[in-house]
Design goal:
Two copies of one chain form a homodimer. Chain A is of the alpha/beta class. The first copy, chain A, has 14 helices and 13 strands. In chain A, strands 9-8-10-1-11-12-2-13 form an eight-stranded mixed β-sheet, sandwiched between helices. In chain A, strands 3, 4, 5, 6 and 7 form a five-stranded antiparallel β-sheet that branches. The longest helix of chain A is centred in the last third of the chain and has 20 residues, at 322-341. The radius of gyration of chain A is 23 Å and the shape is globular.
Amino acid sequence: MEVGNGVYFKLMGVVEDLVQPSDTKIVLVVLDGIGGLPVDRERTELEIAETPNLDRLARVSATGLHIPVDYGVTPGSGPGHLALFGYDPIEHQIGRGVLEALGLGLEVRETDVAVRGNYATVEYRNGKPVVVDRRAGRIPTEENRRITERINREIGDLDGVEVKVAPGAEHRVAVLFRFPEPLPEGSDRLRDTDPQSVGKEPLDPVPETPQAERVARVAGEFLRKVSEILRSEKRANFLLLRGFSQKPKMRSFKDRFGLRACCVAVYPMYKGLASLVGMEVVSFEGNTPEDQVRILRKVWNDYDFFFLHIKKTDSFGEDGNWRGKVEVIEEFDRVLPQILELGPDVLAITGDHSTPSKLKGHSWHPVPLLIYSPYVLGGTSSRFTERECLKGELGIIPAKKIMNLLLANALRLKKFGA
Amino acid sequence: MEVGNGVYFKLMGVVEDLVQPSDTKIVLVVLDGIGGLPVDRERTELEIAETPNLDRLARVSATGLHIPVDYGVTPGSGPGHLALFGYDPIEHQIGRGVLEALGLGLEVRETDVAVRGNYATVEYRNGKPVVVDRRAGRIPTEENRRITERINREIGDLDGVEVKVAPGAEHRVAVLFRFPEPLPEGSDRLRDTDPQSVGKEPLDPVPETPQAERVARVAGEFLRKVSEILRSEKRANFLLLRGFSQKPKMRSFKDRFGLRACCVAVYPMYKGLASLVGMEVVSFEGNTPEDQVRILRKVWNDYDFFFLHIKKTDSFGEDGNWRGKVEVIEEFDRVLPQILELGPDVLAITGDHSTPSKLKGHSWHPVPLLIYSPYVLGGTSSRFTERECLKGELGIIPAKKIMNLLLANALRLKKFGA
């Protein structure tokens, strides 16, 4: 059915339709925020780091850089990872509530609406609450935990809807409403209840679509109950909600690419992002790259695709601590030979975005990318650094195309056309 | 009428609307499957070949690499060439039947439906055919020729529809149904008659659209007659059909680019692909690059655009014979000065895809590209190789944009906007 296929290709994307079975194994290492800028007026964090193993690998690999979202666009962790997983990060946007929930370790399902919350202080005037501090004086995280636990214990059932509140740092929480069955699209179109300034009354969770009415009723009842539970608290006596959102509709990684994929990550956010696309999250003891490689070895026979996430490169970058970032790079370099010993057919090393210590935050800069397989030219770059990767055979490519290259190098794609 | 023009541009593509007349001449040399990978752990076929003329040209040319279809996508010959001719290979997909027909030397018109066939062996049980060998024991090509000739001689007229069967290798054929007038779109939406496994009855060519009903009647009648003709054969006593398809609707090369274009190719497939976009196919004696350049000289005054196709680089690559591929590259290098002597305004040298000997087949790797004209920077690459082209001024570009560059370098495009 040639013509039928033709139409299908245009609708669904070429690559999914070329996927063929294979027993090759792909490892994707994400050094979070790996890209950098010169920190000593000359060299970037990657250039300063002593990385004999990475250097050796770079010399025989395909190298280049990727642009996570678009030229000049600084990505958050959500779009950065979705793009690496082969999903268009503009087409598939993850709502704030869902991202916050994932980051705080909540699993998000198709039956759920998630929302960010912050504890606030209100005064009751004529029986009506008026916000006097939107952050409840930035209560200590410990106090947040205690209060959140109280809510989870006392809130009870909400008309058959399960509610989970997860404590974050200081005044922040994530709230998850789990309905008995999957919700129609548009169920998350509710207005924030945070009035955004003091001296005002908290708002109701007003639905903006008919589908959101049920969620609005449940959220309204939840907030009413919470305000009763918190009435006795001194500072955090109210909860404001922002960013209601549902899990975005996405075909699963397995369905699109035919890969049994797992995630070996330490932080909840990255486990959550991997689970959003249907990867299995592997639990393990420890939190160092060495621990992660040990678990990789343990589950090596169970999967085709291994997403290994190293967080600390980004954390130190965010702190502006370039020495710390350099040390994490060198720590990864020491475990790299153990990954190679497993004999992956394809090994990719990159980041989800750049986090230059100089900027103390995520940035828009293209991210170094290395792909090692038997089917590369190699011989173009002497190291895995921003400037050496510029010389490589991959050029500067959109991040969402990296999966195509990993599948191709793993000989998991058929020929297109005859 | 800015908006009107704006809409027009979006619908029809910018470049066609900028085309202006000129008497400049463009030569496009396609060294089929030219891109490679290291074969001796270090050098690719292009790097091993001794190519003094290509080297000299590369030093004064614009160089780069192109991606035929998309990152990681391995193209067949069809999409590879359409992209080089400036047609989006995903938008314009050539059906299997049409491609097979072109490859076996049949001309395909707008009145035609083409389909792939394979001779099969059936047993008649209770008067009904049951497939016992889908490939008729892979009969020798000679036997195929004899049987095909019998069918063409004996089939006669099918309700005003002309039928042509072309023999391929072993059990393979292409069948062309030529109707008296152009067929509506969707006339090729018929199910395959090949049941895909032995022990089953061959299927009817069931129409999936109302437009396909007429073709289904003709194909059904054809198959009925063929089964009678072949009844006396021992092995090839039945014909199974797969991949009914029509010539894709495309604006012609001449209409889009204002170029009188010709094709100088040895193999039917490439003549067929060129004729699909409306190039004139030049007939000539001989089959070496030298013969092809001789004919180029002969028709030099008759055309503006010359598509010269060299096949053997791909053939040796497919065989994994890198020495053979190197020799063809060197053979081409020796005739290159004769092409330059003709004084083309623009000379482009590239491939339709990569065929690394290491992979013994087409691959997804970017393809070296060289454009020689008076209007290039040059001075970036010392040779025409994968790695030297990476340093070039063209970067890594989509193949479908190459025609833009050839037209621009031939001063055949007006300014866009004021």
